[in-house]
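Q: How do we represent a protein-ligand complex in a form that can be generated cell by cell?
A: Start from the inputs.
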Amino acid sequence: MNWDQLYADRAKLMKTSEIREFFKLTEQPEIMSFAGGFPSVDFFPMEKVAEVMSSLIEEEGRYALQYGPTEGNVELRGYLAEKMTREGIAAGLDNILITNGSQQGMDLLAKVFLNPGDMVIVEEPGYVGGLGAIRNYQGERLPVPLDADGLRTDLLAARLRKLKKEGRQPKFAYIVPNFQNPTGICMSLARRRELLALAQKYNFLIIEDNPYGEIRFEGEPLPSIKSLDTEGRVIYLGSFSKTFIPGIRVGWLVADEPLVQKLACAKQATDLCSNSLGQRVAYRFASCGYIDAHVNTLSERYKFKRDLMLSCMEKHFPAGVTWTVPQGGFFIWVTLPEGMNARDLLLKAIDRKVAYVDGAGFYVNGNGKNTARFAFSEACPEKIARGIAILGQLMHEEMAKFLKTA
Ligand SMILES: Cc1ncc(COP(=O)(O)O)c(C=O)c1O
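Then emit the C-alpha cells for the protein with pyridoxal-5'-phosphate bound:
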C-alpha cells in the first residue's frame, strides 16, 4: 500500500517529535540523562496509591471500572471547580472538563478552533506538545521570542499591528506562563496583563497551560492570566501529572460553559470519556488534602535537585555559557556562545554517557541551535553531579577548539 498517498492533508503534517524520539536513546540506564522532562519516579507515592486503588476497587469498583460521563467524574469536577475558585478563577461544575492529561485539552482546542492556515501565537522556544497539536490541525504558528519576563509583548504588539494591516488576526495564543517548558521562565504580571490587553484589542483567545505552577521553590505565586480575564477569553489547562502522577492521565480544562460543551462533543469522538479509575484515584488523593501536602514536599525535593544542578553548572561550565535560574518547575535553559552547536556537543556528550536535549526542536523554524534544555526533575542527585561535571569537561574542550576557529 502506498500509505502516503492515502493520508488526509492534515495527516501529512503529523510527525513524531524529534525530541521524543531522542528520549528513547537517552533512556538507556547507563546514560546520565537530563533530556526527558518526566517527574521523578522516586517521588511517586507507590504504596499509598496501591492502598487507595485496592480500597477503590473494593468500595466503588462497579463505577471505577465502568465508562463514565464524557465531561468527567462529577465529584472530581466539583473539587476542581472549588480549587480553581480558591485560586481566583471563578468556576462552577459546568466550566470544568476532565481531560486525558492536559495534552488532550490542547488537542481538543486545536481540533475545535483551527481551520487550515489559522494563526496561533506561540512562545519561542515553546512546548513541543503544544506546537505539535497546532501543526497537526494545520494551524500556522506565529513564534514570539521570550526574555526573562516571558513573552515579548512589545514584539507581539508590533506583529499584530502589521497583521491587522494585512487583514489577518490570530485565533489564539498558546502560553505556558509558569516555569515554562523548555526555559523555566515565569511570565511577569505586567506581561500577563499586556498579553490579555492585546487579546482584547485584537480579539484572540489565550490558552493558558499551567502544569508546573504549583511546583514553586521560592517567590510569590503570580495571578493566572485566566484570573485576570473578565470576558471568558482565557482557557485554562491544569494537570495532575507533575503534582501527583502522570500515569493516571488526568488533567482538566476551565472554560465558558458553551465551549466546555463543544469540547465534550469533540472528546466524545476521541475517547468517549477519560480514565474512570484514574479520575477516582485523583479525586481520593485530592479531596483529602493529600496532593496539596504532597506538592509542598515535591517542591522541596525538586528544589534540592535544581540547586544541585545550578551549583554544578556554576562549578563546571566554562565562561561564555549562560543559563536560566528557574524559581520552580523542572527545567533549566542553557545558552552556548553564538555559533556553537548544541546538537554537535550533544552527540559527543552521549559518547561520554551524558544527555540533554538541544534546543532547536523547541523553535518553529529551527533557530536556537546554540541552546539546550536540561531537566533536573528525573535524574538522581549522583547522576546530576557526575553528569554535569563530565559535560563541563567536554564543554571546556569544545570551547577551546571553538575559540581557536572563531
Ligand atoms: C507545558 C506542558 N503542557 C502539557 C504537558 C502534558 O501534560 P499531561 O501529562 O497533563 O498531558 C506537558 C508535559 O510535559 C508540558 O510540559
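The pocket of pyridoxal-5'-phosphate is lined by residues 37, 101-103, 127, 129, 176, 181, 209, 211, 239, 241, 246, 251 (CB under 6 Å). Residues 64 and 280 are 7 Å apart (CA to CA).
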